[in-house]
Design a protein that fits this description.
Layout (H helix, E strand, L loop, with lengths): L1 H22 L2 E7 L5 H12 L4 E7 L4 E7 L5 H10 L11 H5 L9 H4 L1
Antiparallel strand pairs: 1-3, 2-3
Bound molecules: copper (II) ion.
């Protein structure tokens, strides 16, 4: 009986530790945004800085791709895309928040760099 308890405890602790490792997983997500310039980069990266569970972030202005490292137990791609949309930019298939988009400087709106 004592032996069985020991084995059970062992199985339980192993399962628990595997679970906690899985919860602390860090994943990399890339999001295609509608960013136009350096100012957009700053705006989106600032939003990421306040975003819970986001560890690292970088927006490449040339490709408009935002790369984010996030903790899977704290956030998920949907939440991150919504955070980008909230500051006025498209994030993959999530459209930019209309109000936030309207409040962007003209050069930061879509096609803004060509309008200049
Ligand atoms: Cu801009």
């Amino acid at each position: 009986m004592k032996h069985l308890t020991l084995i059970l405890t062992l199985i339980l602790t192993t399962t628990l530790s595997i679970k906690s490792v899985a919860q602390n997983e860090v994943k990399i997500l890339t999001i295609k945004t509608s960013a136009q310039c350096e100012e957009c980069k700053e705006r989106i990266e600032k939003a990421m800085a306040y975003e819970k569970g986001v560890k690292k972030y970088n927006l490449d202005v040339k490709t408009k791709v935002l790369t984010v490292e996030y903790k899977t137990n704290k956030t998920n791609p949907d939440i991150i895309r919504k955070a980008v949309a909230k500051v006025g930019y498209d994030a993959d298939d999530v459209p930019a928040d209309k109000e936030a988009y309207k409040n962007l400087p003209l050069c930061c709106q879509k096609g803004g760099m060509e309008k200049k």
